[in-house]
């Protein structure tokens, strides 16, 4: 069977294969050793991908002080595996001018100590503040490395992907101009690529669509991608009720309704879809407000999509079905979050999370992806997770045929 990954970050995935991947770190000391060893082998800033703090013996995220013990003389940026949290060392914070007096950016925050000084933990758009300055100190990824990384996909049965790319600041520190790089590499790509452009600038979206149209290879513009919230793991998915293990927070809202309407119409007029990331129940309702307005004003329902749709109220599921909005789901999350998600949500909300059967029964169109590098792109374990739902509400399980259908290639 030929598979299509409907939510994929190609340059983030390449970075995990060509750079430093720290998912298996078991303690902060172990993480420090990996960072120090990598620093000895490379010049410039040290970037690490896919930290899983739930695996660390200390049961917490590292801080700038922790990272300083590994690398002090140059910037370090360690991404949590969800991509919505990162940790910077003191050099990276200093390079970005982040101090106790630096205000939190819209849609993000700096964790702070009792004195107001940043601890190094960056949430959501606060990552961009630091990453934008660190990027100039990162050694560029070679074209050959990107092609080699993408060449691993056909071996998993993946012949095409829906890729999320940024025309400006990269979603992970790495390739500076992701659109231009893909266009340049198009003739040599081992897979077909449909591109969702992550930007909040209508002109930047338009320019990206036109640039993609010049690609001499299996590349095409597919639409616009935005974020309405963060992740469960980072306590930044926007929820109606507080987190079970952090009752002081209900997450982070990143959605600008008016901007989303403008960007949605821009994408639709360019022949693209509207795809917005929403994980928390509050975020999903906010995105449905956007989608309903777009549909009422002429956007075809088939051109609207919620990325993740991780937890939704029954009323929201009914509304989504009525509108005809597609759910873009990631079954691999079930396997990777099995050990810690109930700690975030509590037992009652665990009954509502990843409601795949409810989506299908309601008639909601569904597609599946990996969100690589968040998860490994191989669709076969993800399909198994959707069927077994180990540790989750098994009433929401899919049959194997239904799960495999999530990764069916689109009509090109």
- How many strands, which pairing sense, and closed or not: the largest β-sheet? 8 strands, parallel
- Put simply, the count of helices is 17
Strand elements, count: 14
Low-confidence stretches: none
| Proportion of residues in helical segments | 25-40%
Q: How far from one another are the termini?
A: 17 Å
Strand order of the largest sheet: 1-8-9-10-11-12-13-14
Shape annotation: globular
* Relative strand content: 15-25%
Mean pLDDT: 96
Computed structural class: alpha/beta
Rg, rounded, reads 20 Å
Task: Describe the 3D structure.
With 412 residues, the protein is of the alpha/beta class. Helices cover 36% and strands 19% of the residues. It is built from 17 helices and 14 strands. Strands 1-8-9-10-11-12-13-14 form an eight-stranded parallel sheet. It is globular.
Search tags:
412 residues; 8-stranded parallel sheet; 6-stranded mixed sheet; 14 strands
Secondary structure layout:
Blueprint: E1 3-8, H1 10-18, E2 20-21, H2 28-41, E3 46-51, H3 64-68, E4 76-80, E5 85-88, H4 90-95, E6 108-112, E7 118-124, H5 125-134, H6 143-150, E8 158-165, H7 178-185, E9 192-198, H8 202-212, E10 219-227, H9 257-269, E11 273-278, H10 281-296, E12 304-308, H11 314-323, E13 326-329, H12 332-336, H13 341-345, H14 347-350, H15 356-362, E14 366-368, H16 379-388, H17 400-405
Parallel strand pairs: 1-8, 2-3, 3-4, 8-9, 9-10, 10-11, 11-12, 12-13, 13-14
Antiparallel strand pairs: 4-5, 5-7, 6-7
Helix pairs in contact: 1-6, 9-10, 10-11
Short description:
The protein has helices spanning 10-18, 28-41, 64-68, 90-95, 125-134, 143-150, 178-185, 202-212, 257-269, 281-296, 314-323, 332-336, 341-345, 347-350, 356-362, 379-388, 400-405, and strands at residues 3-8, 20-21, 46-51, 76-80, 85-88, 108-112, 118-124, 158-165, 192-198, 219-227, 273-278, 304-308, 326-329, 366-368. The protein has 412 residues and is an alpha/beta fold.
């Amino acid at each position: 069977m030929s598979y299509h990954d409907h939510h994929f970050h190609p340059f983030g995935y390449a970075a995990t294969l060509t750079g430093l991947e720290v998912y298996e770190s078991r303690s902060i000391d172990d993480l420090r050793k990996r960072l120090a060893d990598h620093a000895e082998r490379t010049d410039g800033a040290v970037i690490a991908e896919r930290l899983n703090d739930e695996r660390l013996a200390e049961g917490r995220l590292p801080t700038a002080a922790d990272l300083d013990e590994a690398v002090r003389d140059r910037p370090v940026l360690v991404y949590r595996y969800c991509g919505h949290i990162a940790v910077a060392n003191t050099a990276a914070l200093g390079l970005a001018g982040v101090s106790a007096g630096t205000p939190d950016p819209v849609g993000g925050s700096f964790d702070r100590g009792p004195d107001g000084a940043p601890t190094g933990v960056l949430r959501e758009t606060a990552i961009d503040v630091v990453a934008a300055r660190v990027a100039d100190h990162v050694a560029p990824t070679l074209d050959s490395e990107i092609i080699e990384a993408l060449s691993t996909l056909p071996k998993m049965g993946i012949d095409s992907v829906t890729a999320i790319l940024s025309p400006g600041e990269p979603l992970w520190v790495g390739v500076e101009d992701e659109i231009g790089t893909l266009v340049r590499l198009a003739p040599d790509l081992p897979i077909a690529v449909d591109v969702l452009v992550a930007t909040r600038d209508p002109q930047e979206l338009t320019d990206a669509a036109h640039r993609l149209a010049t690609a001499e290879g299996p590349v095409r513009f597919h639409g616009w991608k935005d974020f309405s919230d963060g992740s469960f793991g980072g306590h930044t998915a926007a929820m109606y009720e507080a987190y079970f293990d952090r009752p002081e927070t209900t997450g982070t809202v990143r959605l600008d309704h008016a901007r989303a309407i403008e960007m949605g119409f821009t994408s639709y007029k360019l022949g693209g879809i509207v795809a917005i990331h929403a994980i928390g129940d509050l975020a999903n309702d906010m995105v449905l407000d956007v989608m309903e307005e777009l549909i009422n004003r002429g956007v075809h329902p088939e051109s609207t999509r919620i990325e993740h749709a991780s937890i939704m109220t029954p009323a929201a599921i009914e509304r989504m079905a009525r509108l005809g909005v597609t759910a873009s789901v990631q079954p691999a999350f079930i396997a990777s979050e099995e050990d810690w998600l109930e700690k975030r949500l509590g037992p009652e909300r665990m009954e509502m999370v990843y409601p795949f059967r409810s989506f299908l029964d309601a008639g909601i169109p569904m597609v599946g992806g990996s969100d690589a590098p968040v998860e490994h792109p191989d669709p076969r374990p993800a399909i198994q997770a959707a069927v077994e739902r180990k540790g989750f509400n098994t009433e929401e399980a899919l049959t194997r045929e239904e799960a495999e259908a999530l990764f069916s290639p689109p009509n090109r």
